[in-house]
Amino acid sequence: MSGAVSTRRSLLLILRVIGAALAYGCFALFLALVAFQVMRWLRDGEWTHIGLTDGLRALLLAGGVEAQGSSALAALVRWLDTPVHWLGLHRLLELLPASLALFLCSIFGNFAFIYSRDTLEDLAQGQASA
Questions:
Q1: Cα angle 63-68-73, degrees, rounded to a multiple of 5
Q2: In sequence order, which ranges of the chain are alpha helices (DSSP H)?
Q3: How many CB atoms lie within 10 A of CB 72?
Q4: Model confidence pTM above 0.85
Q5: Span 72-123, pLDDT tens digits
Q6: How do the domains of the chain map onto residue ranges?
């Protein structure tokens, strides 16, 4: 029985670390993106919209995915540039702000962090009372 508890505890610790990294990393990127947009607005007097397609494209290109390649990720980069199908989804991804997606990822990571922390505390209390 202690082996199953030990495995569960290890998985919860890993989830806690991943959740914290996701929560704080995405929140920092969210703040940086909004600060960049505010700086551009203060400088140029016009709000720079950065949609989810822009963020995905930048992430894929920063990861070394070439649009000329033959992989599925290269096909995704080409679709982000010039869609020929799933036009409604592409339009939705263009309209949704990348900052909103980063904020939602931050909330999800925080949920995972808090859930794993509370579950670890419950496990520790259960072991202490046994």
A1: 45
A2: 2-44, 52-62, 72-81, 87-95, 98-129
A3: 8
A4: no
A5: 999 999 999 999 999 999 999 999 999 999 999 999 999 999 999 999 998 8
A6: 1-45+100-130, 51-96
